[in-house]
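Now read these lines:
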Amino acid sequence: MGHPAGTAVNLAPAQTFLPERTSPRLLGAVWALLVINTLGSQGADTIIPIPRPVAQMVTMGAVVGAFVLALLLNPRVQLRPSAYLLLLTLLLAVSIASSARLESGYGALFRCFRFAMFVGTLWLVSRWWDDWLSLLRHHVRAFAAVLFTVALGLVVAPGMARPDVYGGRIVGAVWPLTPPQIGLYSATMTGLVILLWLGHKTTRSSLLWLAVPGIALLLMSHTRTALLGLVGGLVVALLALASTSSRARKVFGRAVLITGVSAVVVGPAVQTWFRRGQDDLGSLTGREKVWDALLSAPRSLDEQLLGVGLTNKSFDGLPIDSSWLAVYQEQGYLGLVIVAAFLVTLLAVACLRPPSLPRAIALFLIFYCVIASYTEAGLGDASPYLLNLALAAALLTRTKETT
């Protein structure tokens, strides 16, 4: 076992049998800037107050910086053909067409510009999708850095990091992050590190120093959707690895046994955690009221086809909390068709690929996004979900090294 501090940062592979690095080192900076862009600009109070306009400037500046840096790395604009990115570009075109009518105000055009920079950067870095392991490590490191700020806030200001207004759930006290955002970053990073360890691409020390804190932060965020996405995605990924990995088979068998025992021993505690003291789980803690109001609102034919343009993912001042209804509100039926198309395309490609670690990780990311899409918005605009799916598309790229 290596030195904990080094392995936690470097995610060093346990075995060296990968092809020579093909992507530039600055690709990690591009990916980190894309992640910063997805952080959002509102949430709980922070240790050092950050005005929302300042936070918006940081996130917008990050995506512009990512695009410029990616263009410097790829000045000849060499692009890799990608059905996912093509469909994402079509979604961008629909977003621009719907936002140009200004039904949602000039902020819609601002969001379209951000979305365009996001998609353009993904196209520019598609040139290096063959180096999937480097890209995957950039993704893990960036998410780990975000979670480090959450843990730092918990240590420095525990009361501010778990405010009463959020029911004691952990929030970002350094950068304004809500509990669902923390749950998303925690679950994604934890799942990726576990699968990298199963595939002998990282060490046990990295697993302990990244996955264990990730699970702790996920539980403290009390985000049910993220936990279900993590468990569901890992089950699919382990089943995909079972035919080629003895370690995956052992872990899956032990997980089934532990789950069975835990259901008996700590079943009531798990139920209490899921309920979060709420009695309206049948109506998804009030989400159905917003959804019913959104669906019953009168719409013209144009609004049904194209939506009302990009918004802050709210309806009548209340969060929509559903990717599918948010896309219907903002990009209409055309947007829904495009989102369904790129999810089905990624899933179909994953099913056609031979068993391998990249395929299993891609399935984890796809299923996590599908599960989360029911009660979380993000599939219709620049977000961690679209970044996760871009990584899945890269992992499904045909390369000489797929083990």
Summary: The chain is about 65% helix and 0% strand.
